[in-house]
From TrEMBL:
Signal peptide: none annotated. Residues 57-181 form the Redoxin domain. The lineage of its organism: Archaea, Methanobacteriati, Methanobacteriota, Stenosarchaea group, Halobacteria. InterPro entries: Redoxin, Thioredoxin-like_sf, Thioredoxin_ResA/DsbE_sf. This is TlpA family protein disulfide reductase. GO terms for molecular function: oxidoreductase activity.
Amino acid sequence: MKRRAFIAGTAVLAAGSGCLDDGADSNDGDESTESAVELTTVDASGSEGGTIGVPSRGQVQLVNCIRTTCPTSRAMLSRVGEARDELATAREVGPDGDVHVVSVVDEYSGAASSPSELADWWAEQDGDWTLAVDEDGALFEDYGVTGTPTTLAVDGAGEVHWRDEGGTTATNLVSGVETALEASDS
């Protein structure tokens, strides 16, 4: 099903809850993947330039899918930061930890920003964790992300254990990660 057709049918329901996609193809909602999607990371506050994979074996990732032009995405970032701080009180949080928090910018469906523009934008948002770019839309497509913000708790095998579309509280983000950690431990 084309995203544009899906969005046309649900735009009224989604109004006010986030920023919708512009019409790229979807994968019909499959929420797990066997191979990692490679994302370019931005050299910015709390983020090192390079690449990461989603999923990442042996790790739960809190993946916050955003667009820089979406006000709901920007508002959600402070809650992601609060959740990261809370998770860090009991877990190893970071690129090499058992939990990795990453915000992923969709550059596929809109105008692309340069790495320095993204770093400046990230600083304006007070971001202090990994910032990555979905340059070809692969992550958004693989995980059925049709609007932003969409946040996922993904285990090392790529299974989504928790999902929120449109924004939620830091407490719910932490709970979603804990659900994924519990499932990974069993």
